[in-house]
Amino acid sequence: MDAELLSAEFIRHFGHTPLLVRAPGRVNLIGEHTDYNLGFVMPGAINRAVYFAIALNQRQDARLIAYDEQQDRLTITLSSITVGEKQWANYLLGVIAQFQQRGLQVPGFDCIFGGDIPLGAGLSSSAALCCGLAFALNHLLKSGLDRLTLAQIAQGAEHAYAGVRTGLMDQFASLFGQAGHVVRLDCRSLVYDYFPFDTASSHIVLCNSGVKHSLASSEYNTRRYECEQGVAILKQRYPEVASLRDVTLAQLQALGHELGPVVYKRCRYVVEENQRVEAATQALNNGDLDAVGLLMYASHAGLRDEYEVSCRELDVLVEAAQSLPGVFGARMMGGGFGGCTINLVAPEHVPAFEKAMKEAYQRELGLPLETYHTVLVDGVSLVDLDSLA
Ligand code: GAF
């Protein structure tokens, strides 16, 4: 699926010429479950995307086609947007509702979308879907919204129409990605810095566990709630604490009893993970990939043992990677309970790494493994077919 094919499909279905938009998925080097705790993350946009062909249609409705869902179709009345039955459509409905809530009228439009971000792989296909439509509508309506507002619109759509209280990382990465860079975002101040990702030294390889456990969404919201409980308790003793970002390990330990074992573990993971992002920033600046890799392994251990969002498949993949030559670091990535691991691998070792990982996954769990050799690209953009020719 690419923009050219979608453009042809759009013209075949709707008979007019579309605007083309590319909205990438994301990886996250380190900083997991820190975004909604107003800490630090270090994601980047990747060379897998959702593409949109879209145009205003002079009608009162939106005609949507999900190319990858057997060209499933939905026509929606724009004057009465509500959550519906089709999951793919809810993300788009959520974006339209967010525009409307901001007082921006959305006129009729036609849209066909599809892409190559594997679904349920933790690569933020849903954020890409929301960001891509928000960007396209902003362009078509000449609304003049900046990228940060578009990210917040996309996040609002996931909260209200998919029921997952995500942080801002995925939407930010999709919209603010920069080719060859990861971006470190301070999720409180929303200040961000780009860090070059030196592909002469290491490449990003994703290993798709192929599993998506059904508790992913409910457990995500539960983790967020547990962190909020932790902050509420910590605040009583330390009024300056506004989020887990403000908490030290000593403060946590002092209140261990009041927090209780589960909330304590969750909070401890978040406090440590924020420290790891800081340390990874230093290590990247020093070109010290061994140090970055060790931090990734520590991040995985925290996600597995303290935050408890890993699963057997992800643990097997990280353990297998750790024993292979040329691997700097590996960890589960994203919300957890399935999806991909992210692996930093020396370029000359990548083919052998992919082969060995597939063999290990088959041997250990009897499961096939897909790997994605991944490149960091620019965030959401228009696609100009002439420039691609
Ligand atoms: C998911 C969420 F959408 C992000 O906001 C983030 O919390 C991530 O899980 C965990 O770091 O991708």
From TrEMBL:
Domain GHMP kinase N-terminal, residue spans: 90-178
Superkingdom of the source species: Bacteria
Pfam families: GalKase_gal_bdg, GHMP_kinases_C, GHMP_kinases_N
Gene Ontology molecular functions: ATP binding; galactokinase activity; metal ion binding
Membrane-crossing segments per the record: none
Classification via PROSITE patterns: GALACTOKINASE, GHMP_KINASES_ATP
Domain spans labelled GHMP kinase C-terminal: 282-361
Gene3D superfamilies linked to this entry: 3.30.230.10, GHMP kinase, C-terminal domain
Full protein name: Galactokinase
Name of the gene encoding the protein in the UniProt record: galK
